């Protein structure tokens, strides 16, 4: 049985005036129900709570103040789920709500708890509907957008495919609003910096994502070994047609999965709390020698972090080369950076480990 994650953005779920598009939600529920009947296990990652709350609170524009955003999300989440329950109920399908924040998936025990809950819901035939818990999320613990959240959820449940329902038909060779020669790119085998730059852009009036965020989500998911499709969410039946084998929109070809589930969690789910700048010798040892990070290779430290938190490792030009879980706090590292392993005990009075980041707790970000 194949598992798919379907991400639905605010632009798909709302009218141009920002109010929820009930007809569109009914249409999506119809297609997802058909997919479920065809044997697919489906998880939805849905935006729309803030938009629903705007309607309930009488707001005409998306709020910018964090307290208003959280209030709108609180007011709208129940309305959004009520519509989903009613829409799926027409097809005798039951739904469940999962609200996540970045710190939930950054902490390994709650990450695994979320995974177990989703797996259990799927085993009982329910359709989980995942959203960010905007009522409590702050910038520090937000995913940033639901494209990123969808990629995390796809990795969380070992999905076979992530399907992003967009307000455009796919990834174009240029901006179709400005270039009448722009064409949809049917297949993408590698997401290059040039492609990212071409797709760069801001979000919409009611949402937070754009094509750039979708590319980053595809980059994460394909690295998990998960195929990604961007298709129009406005055309009824397109999802079923895609699952039936007809090509639509843009397909991102998945890479062979070369990292464990734990390392994928480190790479994409953990929120980095700081940065370590490394000398050339340490960079070479990490990237080419398969070594752990020792204190002697650390030049400087940025951020405030404790033991067992994630940090990003940079070379002296500021390039991200690795991400991992540290065995020492930022205060301790500031005291032992550039020192030999044999000196740790004398300087700190205690030695947690010889390594600052053990190889098993590290992911190389570029090669």
What does this structure look like?
It contains 14 helices and 13 strands. It has 367 residues and is α/β, with parallel strands linked by helices. It has two domains: 3-263, Acetylglutamate kinase-like (Carbamate kinase, 3-Layer(aba) Sandwich), CATH 3.40.1160; 272-364, PUA domain (Archaeosine Trna-guanine Transglycosylase, Chain: A, domain 4), CATH 2.30.130. A hairpin with a 5-residue loop joins strand 11 and strand 12.
The strand count comes to: 13
Shape: globular
Major sheet details: 8 strands, mixed
> How large is the radius of gyration?
22 Å
CATH architecture of the largest domain: 3-Layer(aba) Sandwich
Describe the secondary-structure layout.
Elements: E1 3-8, H1 10-13, H2 22-37, E2 41-46, H3 49-57, H4 66-89, E3 95-100, H5 102-106, H6 108-123, E4 127-132, H7 146-156, E5 161-166, E6 187-188, H8 193-199, H9 211-223, E7 227-232, H10 238-243, E8 250-252, H11 261-269, E9 274-278, H12 280-287, E10 298-303, E11 310-314, E12 320-325, H13 330-336, H14 344-348, E13 362-364
Parallel strand pairs: 1-2, 1-5, 2-4, 3-4, 5-7, 6-8, 9-11
Antiparallel strand pairs: 7-8, 9-10, 11-12, 12-13
Q: Main attributes?
A:
alpha/beta, 2 domains, 367 residues, 5-stranded mixed sheet, 8-stranded mixed sheet, Carbamate kinase, Archaeosine Trna-guanine Transglycosylase, Chain: A, domain 4
What's this model, at a glance?
The chain is α/β, with parallel strands linked by helices. Strand 11 and strand 12 form a beta hairpin.
């Amino acid at each position: 049985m194949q598992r798919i994650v379907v991400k639905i953005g605010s632009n798909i779920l709302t009218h141009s005036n920002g109010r929820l598009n009930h007809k569109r939600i009914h249409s999506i529920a119809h297609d997802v129900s058909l997919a479920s009947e065809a044997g697919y296990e489906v998880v939805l990652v849905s935006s729309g709570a803030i938009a629903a709350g705007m309607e309930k609170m009488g707001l005409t524009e998306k709020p910018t103040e964090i307290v208003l955003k959280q209030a709108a999300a609180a007011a709208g989440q129940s309305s959004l789920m009520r519509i989903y329950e009613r829409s799926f109920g027409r097809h005798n399908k039951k739904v469940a709500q999962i609200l996540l924040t970045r710190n939930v998936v950054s902490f390994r025990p709650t990450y695994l708890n979320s995974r177990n809950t989703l797996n259990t819901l799927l085993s009982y035939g329910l359709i989980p509907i995942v959203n960010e818990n905007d009522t409590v999320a702050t910038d520090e613990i937000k995913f940033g957008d639901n494209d990123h959240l969808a990629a995390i959820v796809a990795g969380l449940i070992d999905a076979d495919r992530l399907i992003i329902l967009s307000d455009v038909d796919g990834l174009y060779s240029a901006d179709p609003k400005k270039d009448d020669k722009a064409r949809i790119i049917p297949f993408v085998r590698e997401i290059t910096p040039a492609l990212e730059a071409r797709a760069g852009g801001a979000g919409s009036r009611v949402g937070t994502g754009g094509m750039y965020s979708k590319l980053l989500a595809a980059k994460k998911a394909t690295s998990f070994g998960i195929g990604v499709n961007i298709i129009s969410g406005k055309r009824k039946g397109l999802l079923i047609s895609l699952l039936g084998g007809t090509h639509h929109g843009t397909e991102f070809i998945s890479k062979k999965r070369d990292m464990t589930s734990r390392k994928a969690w480190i790479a994409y789910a953990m929120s980095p709390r700081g940065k370590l700048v490394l000398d050339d010798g340490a960079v070479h040892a990490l990237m080419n020698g398969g070594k752990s990070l020792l204190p002697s290779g650390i030049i400087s430290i940025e951020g405030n972090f404790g033991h067992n938190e994630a940090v990003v490792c940079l070379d002296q030009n500021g390039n991200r080369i690795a991400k991992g879980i540290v065995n020492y706090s930022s205060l301790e590292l500031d005291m032992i950076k550039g020192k030999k392993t044999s000196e740790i005990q004398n300087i700190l009075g205690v030695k947690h480990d010889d390594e600052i980041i053990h190889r098993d707790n590290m992911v190389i970000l570029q090669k």
